[in-house]
Design goal:
This protein is an all-alpha fold. It has one domain. The protein is 65% helix and 0% strand. Helix 2 packs antiparallel against helix 3. The longest helix has 33 residues. The termini are far apart. The mean pLDDT is 79.
Length: 160
Amino acid sequence: MDLRWLDAPAADVAAALAVAGERPRPAWRPTRRQVLLHVNNALVLWFASIGFLTIGIQVDGVQDGRVLPADALAFTVVSLVLVVWLAGTFLLWRWARRPLATRAPRPLIGPDGRRLDARTPQTGIGPVVERLAWVGFRAGLYLVPLLFAFAGFMSIVDGR
């Protein structure tokens, strides 16, 4: 954080604001729509993993590898809900790709009436850490339920 602007003269702050201009949003930073899409995708994967694992455990553990009509019905219901949810996810994906509405940002005004949002571009390790945190968050959302969904589906298919 650059603290020199807190006690700089108003003329210097105004000159710095005129030179700085508006910076575009970094490409790696997600919008709220994209975060909503990622959370939806994670919920789809968790639904698939819980549904398929439940059926797989029922078939393997309780019924000794025999598939009953009730299991086929449960598999059909889980699959149909998954197909409908994926269709809704596609629509959500299209909505998340639309460009954001441009609106003028509200300036940050200090108690003495000066603008406090004049800042230099962020440098150092901060952007790298934020990027890695976002990648780690997405990996955690997707990989864990995807692994469980695959295990449950293969348990149903193998019959073991």
